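Budget justification note: compute hours in this period were largely spent on complex prediction jobs such as the one shown. Inputs:
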Amino acid sequence: MEKGELIYMGKAKSLYASEKDGELISCFRDDMTAFNGEKKDTFSGKGAYNATVSAFFFDYLEKNGVKTHFVKMLDESTMVVKKMTMIPLEIIARNVAAGSITKKLPFTEGQLLNPPVIVTDYKDDSRGDPSLNDDLILALGLLTKDELLALKETTLKINRLLYDFFDELDLILVDFKIEFGRYGDLILLGDEISMDSMRLWDKDTKESFDKDVYRYNKGNVMDAYGKIVAKIEEWKKEH
Ligand code: C5P
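Corresponding output:
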């Protein structure tokens, strides 16, 4: 399958047209950015790690009843996805307080959030991805009331599935960000689910195995990502 014209270049992925109608080709690049692009680097193999992990989770979620844009892998860093109209929302689920929530609100890092907290940010770098409440989502016409309820339920379901999965690997799913898009009448999970878009801590030591390693110079980010990939490979062998 040949890549067509470049349709969109994000901070870590490039989207190309596909020869097949209704599909796109998503290439996970080796670029890594943090703090809205202020920090930038390239790590050989990082795109493959994130694509492999995303493909695994899209497949895992599909098997558990969550509809996603994933079609198939073309190579280790390239996947075919359904062509959607993205909804400009970053939906973040949090099980443990970390990152921006501890800066904006009086939560302590590591504080348990039970029940989990879902926040919705408007995806717009030029505005600093401002937080939206339900009324603003409806007023902006991004979702209907029913769609908003359904997306929150789906996000909680994804959180439960991923939390339990990582729990088995002795990791804590602290938080993650997902995005959805429209595909005909359906709303599907899109974008990626990778170490770039979640926080994962070792259950005992609370060591990070995610993008925070890069953000805050906590060690070798490729080693951290590699450990998650290896744990998932191990899990696959056992299941
Ligand atoms: O920065 P913050 O603490 O709000 O991030 C919450 C979670 O969402 C983290 O796992 C982070 O990696 C992810 N995130 C993301 N893309 C963004 C913002 C947050 O993947 N633009």
